[in-house]
Amino acid sequence: MHWTKTVAALAAAGALYAAAMGVRFSGKSALKFTTRLVSFGPRPPGSEGLERARAYILRQLAAAGCRASEQAFTAQTPLGPKTMKNIIAWLPGTSGKAVAFTGHYDTKLMPGRVFVGANDGGSSAGLLLELARVLAKQPRRHDVYLVWFDGEEALLEWTEKDSLYGSRELAAKWERDGTLRKLVALINVDMIGDRDLRLVHEGYSAAWLRELAWETAAELGYGRHLGREEGAIGDDHMPFLERGVPALDLIDFTYGPDNRWWHTEQDTVDKLGANSFQLVGDVLIAVLGKLERTKP
Ligand SMILES: [Zn+2]
Fold first, then answer.
1. 124, 125, 166, 189: which could form a disulfide with 105 (CB 3.0–4.6 Å)?
2. Full-model pTM
3. Which residues span the domain enclosing 199?
4. CA trace torsion 58, 62, 65, 70 (10° rounding)
5. Distance CA 279, CA 292 (A)
6. What is the pLDDT of residues 24-50, one digit of tens each?
7. What separation in Å is there between the alpha carbon of 235 and the centre of ligand 1?
8. Which pLDDT tens digit goes with each residue over 225-282?
């Protein structure tokens, strides 16, 4: 199809341009950021580990030259009111439209266990830091928001009320202040560091955006990492989808044999691979290029 060829050529031109600027997305660097975040230990909402992770993320954003702000709020949880903080970096463009890349940086509260969430909570936060480092140095048309959500995980058991605290808060705020209307797309990443990466063909996501990502990944030679079987996963993209934003969740939900490493002490950095971060970073940057050219 003509459109496909055109956007592929444009995406390739974008990648060449980025390369000429001397800043390329590095899976190794994203893994390094993740490893550092994991070194702070368990990072559930309100913990010292999460406080240190937040300070680290803000320092890295400052070093990359990104404007960042914190969105503090009080979440009503089954364990009582909890203060949580999203981190939002804003890279201004010129078109008046925006694209958001999001993911969570908290880890699941597991009393009595040392759960460090290398893949679940770590990988999304590390990948977003590498995106910040790269995108801060590139010219762009659309504004780019990079968001680290607090409180993605349930504090007790996953329900609509006990989960997605940070994304629900930001979606409501962005609806009030008009930011939602500028968003042409929001792509959330979660558990994308698994060395053996296989992305879920996530069923709640906006179909056109999911197919754009799948087509782009295939063009980049990553086809074997793309799931085709439909799975539906409630994640931080949901509050935005519910408000009419085209949103996509990129998630691998086969982490270890029978997903055995998910939400266990086995979720450690040795299970992660730089190549998986590279794949997701390359796809996101190419998709951003396509969105800037086809959604003016
Ligand atoms: Zn989780």
1. 125
2. 0.92
3. 2-294
4. 40
5. 20
6. 999 999 999 999 999 999 999 999 999
7. 9
8. 998 877 899 999 999 999 999 999 999 999 999 899 999 999 999 999 999 999 999 9
Going from the Cα of 8 to the center of ligand 1, the distance in angstroms, rounded, reads 34
CA–centroid distance, 95 to ligand 1, in Å, is 35
Distance 121 CA to ligand 1 centre (A): 7
The protein residues having their C-beta less than 5 angstroms from ligand 1 (an ion) are: 120
Res 22: pLDDT = 59
Say which of 152, 162, 194, 252 is annotated catalytic.
Answer: 152
To the query of whether residue 143 is one of the catalytic residues in this protein, the response is: no
* 190 labelled catalytic: yes
Average of per-residue pLDDT values in the chain: 93
Between the CA of 247 and the centroid of ligand 1 the distance, in Å, is 19
Q: CB under 8 Å to 207, separation ≥6 — which residues?
A: none
The CATH number assigned to the domain holding 117 equals 3.40.630.10
In angstroms, how far is CA 18 from the centroid of its own chain? 21
d(CA 283, CA 289): 10
For 130-160, what is each residue's pLDDT tens digit?
A: 999 999 999 899 999 999 999 999 999 999 9
